Backbone:
């Protein structure tokens, strides 16, 4: 199993551009999550999903959108990039609410200039 | 979700035990206590979790106070590879993990 994979690893955007961060897991996990981590800070939950077709907001959802059309994929969309969205983005997954262990991807480092 | 309080940083010597404390006084009866760690430039990694009883695994031990308002992560013999930020998190339904700033553990050779 590859676990949780994220693409791209690095990206530089200009203000106002849009992009999609990809996240895929091959463990047949129902729950998936997107977090962002600013320098020297802990992770903050952006959005999460408890299954295909079901998504919900986390702590910091503004400026982002998600979709979950399959169990494996959970893309994160930035529509109008802003410098405040410069961060490292982590995707994670877990099997169900009864399985507390979350598996994290390697992260995407995004810079908005 | 319950809030946690951890020291900002701790130091340890290699091959000595490390006790990382965490306070979570507002924990509810169904909240698990999770510990994750984050090595430099990597995503968080699961360490251990528990509900009421003390727990052991190959990485660490988790000691939970009887009133569940605090817990301690125990690394039995710290190595240089254990240098990381350790996060104590309490979580409930849907496993939404609310990360604080964690404890930065430095391990001296």
Residues:
């Amino acid at each position: 199993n590859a676990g949780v994979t994220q693409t791209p690893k690095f990206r530089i955007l200009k203000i106002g551009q849009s992009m999609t961060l990809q996240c895929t897991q091959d463990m047949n996990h129902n729950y998936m999550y997107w977090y962002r981590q600013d320098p020297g800070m802990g992770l903050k939950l952006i959005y999460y999903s408890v299954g295909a077709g079901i998504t919900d907001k986390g702590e910091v959802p503004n400026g982002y959108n998600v979709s979950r059309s399959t169990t494996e994929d959970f893309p994160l969309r930035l529509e109008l990039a802003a410098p405040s969205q410069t961060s490292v983005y982590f995707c994670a997954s877990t099997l169900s609410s009864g399985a507390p262990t979350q598996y994290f991807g390697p992260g995407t480092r995004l810079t908005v200039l | 979700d319950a809030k946690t309080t951890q020291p900002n940083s701790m130091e340890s010597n290699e091959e000595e035990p490390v006790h990382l404390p965490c306070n979570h006084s507002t924990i509810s009866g169904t909240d698990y206590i999770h510990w994750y760690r984050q090595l430099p430039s990597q995503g968080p990694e699961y360490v251990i979790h528990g509900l009421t009883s003390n727990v052991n695994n190959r990485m660490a031990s988790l000691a939970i106070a009887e009133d569940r308002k605090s817990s301690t992560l125990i690394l039995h013999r710290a190595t240089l590879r254990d240098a990381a930020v350790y996060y104590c998190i309490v979580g409930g339904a849907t496993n939404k993990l609310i990360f604080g700033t964690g404890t930065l553990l430095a391990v001296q050779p």
Summary: Chain A touches chain B through 27 residues (CB under 8 Å). Chain A has a mean pLDDT of 93. Chain A is about 0% helix and 50% strand. The first strand of chain A starts at residue 4 and ends at 7.
